[in-house]
What does this fold into?
Amino acid sequence: NGLLAGKNVLVMGVANDRSIAWAIAQSLAAQGARLAFTYENERVEERVRKLAETIPGSLFLQCNVTVDEEIESLAVQLKESFGVLHGLVHSIAFAKTEELDGMFVDTSRAGFALAHDISAYSLAAVAQRVYPLMTEGGSIMTMTYLGAERALRNYNVMGVAKAALEASVRYLAADLGPHNIRVNAVSAGPIRTLAAKGIKDFNSILRQVEEKSPLRKTTEAAEVGDTAMFLLSHLSRGITGEIIYVDNGYNIVG
Ligand code: 0WD
It folds into this structure.
């Protein structure tokens, strides 16, 4: 039972128990989804394995999204274990810390390419290999941030990569809609995670959100988790190609 009973969902981007992907996994599991977690490399393997083991019946697979062969092997393993896939949660981003400080104008060619490869292209790279497993229809969701639309201090190349990610959501939604596969993004307010550690002056960003957002509080990962659950469920069947804000309203006033 649950809104996601009988659904198989791939969750990419758990690094630790503060990861947004982990909060999403909790919300999905609470509604009866069967989950497959991926971890990037040996560095995070044990930590992610321990978390995955707390959700009975879940799979645990390695995949660095910069390597095509690893994504292909992930798709093969999912087909063997799940057969049919119903959902994909993409909660992955990366930029070198030196690109997240100072001015965007100083971005290096390599830093720009890496941020776009991991934070934007990876959505299409994974979708192209797993959508053939979504034979009963499916839902794909990714994570974005307000810096895609506004020039926010220190977000720099990541904002440009998020803009590419948001455009990718629309193109993927147009491509995959005829297969009854929906593609959306959640634009979350700032949440203190490992990835947020790379962003300079993160505390002052949180303080601003607390003061200005209509609901006068910062975003909790569980709020994102529940919206992701909605996006993966039948309840959101009429929604595709959208960017949904889970930010306590900050984007309408900030
Ligand atoms: O305020 C925030 N934390 C917000 C985050 C606000 C709005 C959006 N987001 C987005 C992030 O940009 C990202 O897309 O949410 C997503 C998840 O971020 P998170 O939960 O804040 O951060 P974290 O727990 O660090 O998870 C991101 C993970 C990586 O962690 P580390 O810290 O080890 O880089 O993305 C994964 C990795 O697990 N990742 C990769 N996975 C596979 N292959 C790769 C890769 N090459 N690179 C990073």
